Amino acid sequence: MLRIRFEKTGSGIWISHLDLMRVFQRAFRRAGLSLRHTQGYSPHAFVSLALPLSVGTESVCELLECELTDETVDLGALPARLNAVLPAGIVCREAYEGTRRLKELTHLRVRVDLKYDRGVSEGAAAQLEALFARETLVVEKNSKNGPVQQDIRPLIRALTVRAADGHTLCLEAVICAQNPSLNPDLLSKAIRTHLPAYAPDFAKSTRLALLDASLEAFR
Q: Among 141, 121, 143, which Cα is nearest to 195's?
């Protein structure tokens, strides 16, 4: 299976999961690359995204899987061919033949930037570290059946807090990616829920790396 690592940043973060699938299928056609399709009455292209990304979340490590009808395509030149026709904010970085199963992708390294308009309060970093060191950390999240309470603490493998500047704290964490998964936006929601005095005025999440169960890079 062919894999393409791409970034979704800038204005690209507002493209939804389904729209991104359509964007890529159009990009393949415009680049003169033919995707393999299923057979039958309603054929669909062999193209999928490894892990759905929430609208508004940045990522520098997204994976797209696909099958091309032409197996002789130069993979080294493939990213440039797609980048020439992709919209701003979507940038392909490399293409390669994937050998590992996607279920081996178990963790994500993420960063959550917490912005404080009036500056970071004294002692805020220590308070956040203590929060995420708790044995349980229940946050309300949306599900298909409505709001549910979830203890997100077991889904956090590691987390540190550092000051980026006088107005920004950065959470850098390793979290579960699937079965079960943790949306990094819930990290900032946990602060708003349990430490409202240290709630940020704005929070932005970024996926940094895909990891396996040994916390090594997944490709």
A: 121
DSSP-derived secondary structure for 2-56: EEEEEEE-GGGGGS-HHHHHHHHHHHHHHTT-PBPB--SSS--BSEEESS---TT
Q: How far apart are CA 53 and CA 62, in angstroms?
A: 9
What residues are paired with 140 via a beta bridge?
A: 149
For the chain (219 residues), the mean pLDDT of every run of 10, in chain order, is 94 94 93 81 79 93 91 91 96 94 95 96 94 95 85 96 94 94 95 95 96 94
Q: Using CA atoms, how far apart are residues 119 and 113, in angstroms rounded to an integer?
A: 13
Which residues, listed in sequence order, are joined to residue 114 by a DSSP beta bridge?
169, 203
At 112, which helix (H) or strand (E)?
A: strand 107-115
User: Helix, strand or coil for residue 92?
Assistant: strand
Contacts of 126 (CB under 8 A, 6+ apart): none
Give me the pLDDT at residue 36, please: 79
Within 10 angstroms of residue 104's Cβ, the number of other Cβ atoms is 12
Q: Model's pTM, two decimal places?
A: 0.89
Contact 169, 120 (CB under 8 A): yes
- DSSP per residue, 156-174: EEEEEEEEEETTEEEEEEE
